[in-house]
Request: fold
Amino acid sequence: MCSVHDTVEFEKRGIPATMFLTQAFRNAAVHHFRTKGMDGHPFIELPHPVSNLTHDEMRALTLKYVEQMVRQLTA
Reply:
């Protein structure tokens, strides 16, 4: 998973990072974080699927997670 890899690389450089994914990819992300030595790294889980959402629907959905994202990046 490229998103996990990118998140790990940012964290190694001291840059707080998180990622968005849908529920369908949760187990894969948990596994990849574990294999990269970052077991338990937080991420933001959106409902699946999102590919059928309009731009406005996706915007409304992601805005619900802004506070969670800020908490993860500033913890």
User: Anything to note?
Assistant: The chain has one domain: 2-74. The helical segments are 2-12, 26-35, 55-63, 66-74.
